[in-house]
Design a protein that fits this description.
Blueprint lengths: L13 H11 L12 H8 L17 E2 L13 H8 L5 E2 L10 H10 L4 E2 L5 E2 L18 H10 L7 E13 L5 E14 L19 E11 L7 E7 L7 E6 L4 E4 L29 E13 L1 E2 L12 E3 L5 E3 L3 E2 L5 E2 L4 E12 L8 E7 L7 E5 L5 E10 L16 E9 L4 E10 L12 H6 L2
Parallel strand pairs: 12-20
Antiparallel strand pairs: 1-2, 3-4, 5-6, 5-22, 6-7, 7-8, 8-9, 9-10, 11-17, 13-14, 15-16, 17-18, 18-19, 19-20, 20-21, 21-22
């Protein structure tokens, strides 16, 4: 893509950026000017001028049953309930920026002003970066939908990456007994379109199926599930249903999953396939409503501040060292034992359009800076709280795997899905790595599943 040369150390002038955009979009209906610097700065350098402040909440403090009422407004309702009942004590950590890759920010600058929403809810003129970097407007009826698209095209795992291994523990929330543990030696993701960092960008070619993203999962343990694989192929066209395939080792065959099976419990856990990464369904499957902006405690941390580091699993590394996982605490060890940060949070309600969907609604607590969903409340059809899903995030430069340094990606560190109705939880321990060598081209194919590699 042609650009104009700049002297070393110079910041691009408005004229330079406009000229570059015109050259990049010559002959195409994709240019409407750059996004303003102040909009980008607020979106991506959110805490440059300091962290949010709330009386009674400071780095190093702990939110307990005794003091939770004084800070109730800084917690999502489900989390407040756990702490109020004495089932969890939340550590508070320092708030700091989770900065994006410069190429992602630049893609946002050059492309976002051209993005609009079609009558069917899909995007027009989207190329790469964050589609809607502006703060949501409460008067905008599409504000929730725009935030959902920001999540869809965020920087989770960058353009590609793997969790290896990925350890899930199934626990009884009353007895704390670990009923089952599953180890995935592959939990990999790759974008084929709308890429910003890894070449080719913005699109992978050839891409005859017009895929947006692939997810490939393989079980290593226990023996009765070893070799089980899952493949999800998401399309650029959000109105098109994703393809999902399951390979069961003992049957030695691949079968295509019916649409409804993505809302079944995955391998007996407390998660649906639709829950992966916070939300793995189509944007068009939900009605998205922006409910306001709050300052809430969210699970973002520096792993150096995690006191329980190394308390659970240790995985051998190639150099002979060990990988220490972030631990879990609280009742039944179902809660992340790591410090939460005060962060600007967008509250979004999403209701399924399909009447037969098992979920009545999800309430997403979106981190404004990263556009990730670190906390999700899931309600049943009666409107009662069913589950709380918490995904913990570690900064790529602050304790994530060394391979992630300089990648500007959002890297997961833990998850906890607590089913408050069945008194059960599933926790996940990550060793996440963002590297192109981990995701060869053939990984996200049905043929690969048959080969088991």
């Amino acid at each position: 893509m042609p650009t104009l040369p700049l002297p070393s150390g110079h910041r691009p002038s408005v004229l330079h950026r406009l000229s570059a955009a015109l050259l990049a979009c010559a002959g195409l209906p994709c240019w409407a000017g750059d996004v303003a610097d102040d909009v980008l700065d607020k979106a991506f350098n959110t805490y440059r001028n300091g962290a949010p402040k709330v009386d009674g909440i400071a780095p190093g403090s702990t939110i307990t049953k005794a003091n939770v009422d004084a800070v109730k407004e800084s917690l999502n309702p489900a989390m407040y309930g756990f702490i109020k009942k004495g089932e969890y004590e939340m550590q508070v950590g320092e708030t700091f920026d989770f900065t994006m890759h410069p190429k992602y920010i630049e893609a946002t600058r050059r492309n976002a002003a051209s993005v609009t929403i079609e009558a069917n809810g899909t995007l027009r003129n989207y190329v790469a970066g964050r589609p809607f970097p502006q703060e949501p407007d409460p008067k905008d009826p599409q504000a929730g939908l725009k935030l959902a698209w920001n999540f869809q095209y965020g920087r989770v795992w960058g353009d590609l990456g793997c969790i290896d291994p990925f350890i899930w523990d199934y626990r009884n929330y009353e007895t704390a007994k670990v009923e089952r543990s599953i180890v995935f030696d592959k939990f990999c993701l790759k974008r084929y379109a709308f890429r910003t960092v890894d070449e080719p960008a913005p699109d992978f070619k050839p891409n005859p199926a017009e895929l947006y993203r692939g997810i490939y999962v393989r079980v290593a343990e226990p023996q009765d599930l070893k070799g089980t694989q899952l493949l999800i192929q998401k399309f650029k066209d959000d109105l098109k249903l994703s393809d999902a395939y399951l390979y069961l080792g003992f049957q030695r065959r691949v079968r295509r999953l019916a649409t409804g099976q993505t809302t079944d419990a995955f391998l007996g856990s407390d998660l649906m396939i639709e829950d992966f990464e916070g939300y793995n369904g189509r944007i068009s499957d939900m009605t998205w409503t922006y409910k306001g902006t709050k300052t809430l405690l969210l699970p973002f941390w520096d792993r150096a501040a995690v006191k329980s580091k190394g308390r659970q699993h240790k995985t051998p590394q190639a150099d002979g060292s060990t990988w220490d996982y972030t631990g879990f605490g609280g009742k039944a060890q179902c809660h992340a034992d790591a410090p939460f940060q005060l962060r600007t949070t967008y509250v979004i309600e999403a209701k399924p359009k399909e009447p037969g969907h098992p979920v009545g609604k999800r309430v997403f607590y979106m981190d404004a800076q990263t556009a990730e969903f670190p906390i999700i409340e899931i309600y049943d059809q009666k409107g009662e709280l069913w589950k709380q899903f918490v995904i913990g995030w570690v900064h790529a430069e602050r304790g994530a795997h060394p391979i992630n340094r300089g990648k500007g990606a959002d890297v997961g560190d833990t998850f906890s899905m607590i089913d408050v109705q069945s008194k059960h939880c599933t926790t996940g321990s990550f060793r996440g790595m963002v590297d192109a060598k981990l995701v060869p081209d053939g990984m996200f194919s049905v043929q690969n599943m048959r080969g088991g590699d």
